[in-house]
């Protein structure tokens, strides 16, 4: 049995970042927001990003990684990201996530490569075969729906989901009627996005719990234990 601590590794790779000179500044703002969203013991390392415009994070095992996905997609000037989310063993250390390593980090790296080949936007792995099969089917739907949002729909989604405002409060922020916000929320499928994100979080949480009970040591990009 390994003595390494467990955590949830998040890699977010900006799609076509080489043609987007603003992606680095956007990632810097996103990093700051996610560090504030997961303060203290809720993360095992600060968020950071590489020069290749790849965000990396390491959350405590009990945290919901799909919160990060939703916040990133509903950021102002949001960029499309490929997300690799892997629960598993990490090597202990200090500093930001980009300075960490361990089996879950290596699995996340392999998963990103797989996503580029598959042209999917998200893959989450817990090490539990049943949970991972469900996540493999449903996960890409979340990023696909988020990537379809218009700038205005993202603005509404951020107020309703991230800021947790009512439709009336969001209307006041935007200077429009409540009915207008309701129509935009329906067209953006905000309620369905929230339900899908919650469902994915529940499946991920259950998969992690089963893997932890069964003593899974290393999660691989294929979804099994090694």
**How many separate domains make up the residues?**
1
Q: Low-confidence stretches at least 5 residues in length (pLDDT < 50)?
A: 220-226
Structural class: alpha+beta
Radius of gyration: 17 Å
Total E-strand runs: 5
First-to-last CA distance: 12 Å
Major β-sheet strand ordering: 2-3-1-4-5
Shape: globular
Strand content: 15-25%
Task: State the helix count.
Answer: 8
Mean pLDDT: 90
Described by strand count, sense and barrel closure, the largest sheet is: 5 strands, mixed
Helix content: 40-55%
| Helix-strand sequence | EHEEHEHEHHHHH
Please describe what this structure looks like:
The model is unreliable at 220-226 (pLDDT under 50). It is globular and about 55 Å long. It has helices at 23-37, 66-73, 103-118, 129-147, 151-162, 167-174, 178-187, 190-214, and strands spanning 6-14, 43-49, 54-59, 81-89, 122-125. The protein is 50% helix and 15% strand. The chain has a 5-stranded mixed β-sheet with strand order 2-3-1-4-5. Helix 5 (151-162) packs across helix 7 and helix 6 (167-174) packs across helix 7 (178-187). Helix 3 links the parallel strand 4 and strand 5 (122-125). The chain has 226 residues and is of the alpha+beta class. It has one domain.
């Amino acid at each position: 049995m390994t003595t390494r601590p467990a955590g949830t590794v998040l890699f977010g790779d900006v799609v076509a970042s080489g043609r987007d000179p603003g992606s680095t500044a956007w990632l810097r703002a996103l990093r700051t927001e996610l560090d504030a969203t997961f303060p203290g013991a809720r993360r095992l390392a600060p968020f950071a990003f590489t020069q290749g415009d790849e965000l990396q994070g390491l959350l405590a095992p009990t945290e919901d990684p799909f919160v990060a996905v939703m916040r990133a997609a509903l950021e102002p000037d949001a960029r499309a990201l490929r997300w690799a989310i892997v629960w598993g063993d990490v090597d202990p250390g200090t500093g930001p996530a980009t300075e960490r390593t361990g089996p879950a980090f290596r699995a996340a790296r392999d998963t990103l490569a797989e996503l580029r080949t598959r042209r999917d936007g998200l893959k989450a792995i817990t090490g539990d075969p049943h949970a991972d099969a469900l996540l493999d089917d449903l996960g890409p739907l979340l990023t696909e729906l988020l990537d379809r949002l218009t700038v205005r729909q993202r603005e509404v989604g951020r107020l309703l989901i991230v800021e947790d405002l009512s439709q009336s409060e969001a209307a006041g922020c935007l200077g429009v009627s409540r009915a207008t916000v309701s129509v935009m929320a329906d067209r953006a499928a905000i309620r369905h996005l929230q339900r899908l994100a919650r469902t994915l979080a529940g499946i991920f949480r259950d998969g992690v719990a089963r893997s932890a009970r069964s003593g899974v040591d290393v999660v691989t990009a294929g979804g099994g234990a090694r």
